[in-house]
Amino acid sequence: MLEWINEFISRNLVTLIKILGFPGLIFILVFIIFAVWYQRKYLARLMLRMGPVHAGKVLGWLQLIADALKLLAKEIIVPRESMGKIFLLSAITLPVVPAAAIALIPFAKNYMILSVKGFTLPLFLAIMTLYPILIVLMGWSANNKFTIIGAFRSIYLDIAGEIPMILSAIGVMLWAGSYDLQEIIEAQKSIWFIVPQFLGFIVFLISYLAMIEKVPFDIPEAESELVFGYKTEYTGAVFLDTMLGDYVNLLAWALLMNTLYFGGYLGPSITGDPIIDGSIWTLVKLIIIITLTFTIIISYARLRIDQAVRLGWNYLIPLGVLNIVLTVFIKYILLGG
Amino acid sequence: MAGKNFLSRVVTPFFVVLKHVVNQPVTHKYPYERLKGFDRTRGRIVLDIERCIGCGACGWICPDSAIQMKFVEGSKVTHPAIDFLKCSFCGLCVEICPREALKMTNVVELAEDEYRELVYTPEKLSIEPNLKDILPMMKYELEPVITPRKMGYSRRRIEK
Amino acid sequence: MKDMLPYRYHPFNEIVELEGGLFQVNMGPQHPISGQGRFIVITDGEIVYKIEMDIGYSHRGIEKILENRSFIQGIIPLERMVMLDTSNIVMGYVMAVEKLYGVEPPPRAQYIRTIIMEFNRIISHLYALGLFAESAGWNPAIFLWTTADREPVLDILEMITGARWSYSFFIPGGVRADLPNGVKERILTTLDYLENRVRVYEDAWIYNETFRMRTEGVGVLPRSKAIEWGAAGPNLRVSGVPYDTRKNEPYAAYGELDFKIVTHTAGDSYRRGWARVEEIKVSIDIIRQAIENMPEGRIRVALPPKPVEEEVLTRVESARGEINFYVYTEGRDRPYRVKISPASFRNFYVIEMLPTIQTIRFADVPPIIYSFDPWFLDADR
What we know:
Chain A is an all-alpha fold. Chain A is 67% helix and 0% strand. Chain A is globular, with a radius of gyration of 21 Å. The mean pLDDT of chain A is 85. Chain C folds into 2 domains: 2-54, no CATH class; 62-347, Cytochrome-c3 Hydrogenase, chain B, CATH 1.10.645.10. In chain C, 46% of the residues lie in helices and 13% in strands. In chain C, the strands form 3 sheets. In chain C, strands 1-2-3-4 form a 4-stranded antiparallel β-sheet. Chain C has a 3-stranded antiparallel β-sheet with strand order 7-8-9. In chain C, strands 5-6 form a two-stranded antiparallel ribbon. The radius of gyration of chain C is 21 Å and the shape is globular.
């Protein structure tokens, strides 16, 4: 039995490291801890505050652990009139969906969890469309009107945001001439796609904000109206899980933005090892994208749901189509393919 | 009028927010740093028992009925005892005192575990508060100054 | 018609279904946005049918408390009415007492009062701006900026009066102390700093496209209705009524200073927020003038032993609008009856009446309410 395990580990060591270690579980958890801490300190800086300073002495790094422990110690309250199993299960599965999508992202050349070739970008977008379904289940099963309104707002927003996002992704695919995420990155060796695909990037950025449901599109949460939207009824560890889902979602979309527009793992060589180099550049670019996101979320007011949906359908979709037309025209007619 | 066209109305807020990265926080680490206050800052009241003649004017003027006149051993007259749970630090008692026996300090750290410890007898009232005992972890006092930087307001540290 | 609604009182449930497919949404007192009160919003889907302001959660009976205190003692509980704006509130009562006793405070005291009142207006407006931004769905950036920018003003007020919140500084007959040394330079640097910051607010907030989208044309209060329903303060002035007690019935040193009234004709939520930023600029201007023209002399006169008048009515312009004091005394050193007519109370009535003249969406309810700068403590007394 032990020999079998030993053999299994030695045969699949790289895969195990990938799944449990770097682009997998441990990385996601560590990154989320970092992202929450970074959000707190960075936003505090912009708001003329300090953020947590006391716990852990150095920059308050222990504060997050303390908060997580506090949430874990709290009672998990299931509302009497809710559909208890769906209520809990939908929240618990929430981080799984974006985490599954992250498996497709190349962190360095030929370094991703799921080494498939071909239609990885459409597959990524297809996996991420499952996320709103879980949100509806969360809102519906809690049987509270705040949560239901929040869930349906989320659906409206996701439909208005997902189509422009797919359109801008089509622009990238046409420019790179490939469906494959790694080939898209390799196609950016001469110039990052943010330059030739700038219009598409604007469309992507706005729909990205809608997909991660942060200000100006935090309409499903809408603290001043809906208390906490579809997450209103969650407490304790399950609430922690929904928070986790939020940040994994942010991580997945930020990685996609990096892959499509900022050249993914490309960058000048530092150590000489392609995997370590690529990972370092991915992380550096990721942090810059997150900084951009966090700055945006405190610069703007929340839009109303009708305004957000109108923005998606009336402006972003035509812009996305225009981007595709321009891409085809420039790439295949002016530059000749 | 800045930001008239659409593009600048969208882009300017982002850069205005981003500019705040460079400034100093306005908040301070309270138990380690403390605002010094000004000469007139109204805090805990101190009684000079030698000067007090027990006229009771402070008790009469107090709008919160926080002052009661109490007998003290070895003194012929009554002296004020202040209930700091009722006191609102308006300073009327200090102002009305004909002998200037009451004065105000900058110390506002009065938290206690029990209510009765907040009722200061005349003897307790005549002890000057010492910040070193109240806040042993305090390293700096902060003096409020306006720094010339445009984005934020900060205070200068005074070494303790 | 809308007053005939089948309406039941549901104190505990957050959302209650009423007859006819209507929903009653209780925003408060535990809702994140409500404050010390409750907005009962009755909605037909997304469209608001009726808003009811449920006040009284912080009623302290200040009018009754004042009857049991002498005039000078009454100032301290009275300050608890609006902690942000204490000196403007106290000014009305102090003026009433001065009229009762028939004394005129010396001009230097009037100028010091004007400076403190305008600083109070600035910090009150800053707080209102922060809450408005918060209700329009900002992360708390603007709220914390305004909170941070109140700090230098609070430092000045602490330097002059000795307290950051409840100053207890105005007394019948003058003020309690003269300006301390070195405060003038500090005031002037602070005003420069605030002018800088107001520009930041304009760039980041007033001229922000998302904020404009959210609030322009929302909660429009037309001129005729503003007068009919008795809106007060900046809310009245942006509806096209140039009424400001500081100008129309000058008190303190306002008669000798030259300033403009912020008015606009749009009367929507956007302009109500804008007016507060503009009023901060006006206040900065007033303080500069008051510092320049400050006369020398005494700061306080003694009161005669007995009141000469029996009843007086005074009005002052607080940050939220005009506030009226009716004081009746029977020749003693304390009032027999005080009646306060605060500004927030009248603004609440305007908010309640708004759904009768226009369509309001549920998502717009918090920005509309906070554009009026509501203060439950003010309305409750």
